[in-house]
Write a structure and sequence with these properties.
By secondary structure, this protein is an all-alpha fold. It is built from four helices and no strands. This is SHOCT domain-containing protein.
Length: 109
């Protein structure tokens, strides 16, 4: 009987030491384990929201269409600017043609 009581006393001492070490955490990982993946999901969602919006806005401002190609108006302006840079047309003709292009452009949707 005394051997059994000594064994129970020893196990209780070990268990109480372990309980003091993990105070507040409980057995196993607990609910806080879900905070780690949740944190990283939120970080990636925030990065995607910020940079995705900037990339879409930059693409729209540079004249790129839905599939990465230049819009027809922007392509015409680029071609006209290249011709002006090569010296095929002078400044007066460049500005006149550019004005005609922009005047006949469809309104942005």
């Amino acid at each position: 009987m005394s051997t059994t009581l000594a064994a129970v006393n020893a196990l209780t001492a070990v268990a109480s030491t372990a309980d003091r070490h993990f105070v507040g955490w409980g057995p196993g990982f607990g609910w806080w384990f879900l905070l780690i993946p949740l944190f990283w999901i939120l970080v990636f969602a925030l990065l995607f929201a910020l940079f995705g919006r900037r990339w879409r806005r930059a693409a729209r401002e540079n004249g790129y269409g839905p599939h990465g190609r230049l819009s027809p108006l922007r392509q015409a302006e680029v071609t006209l600017a290249e011709r002006y840079a090569k010296g095929d047309i002078d400044e007066v003709e460049y500005r006149a043609r550019l004005e005609v292009l922009r005047a006949n452009a469809a309104p942005p949707s």
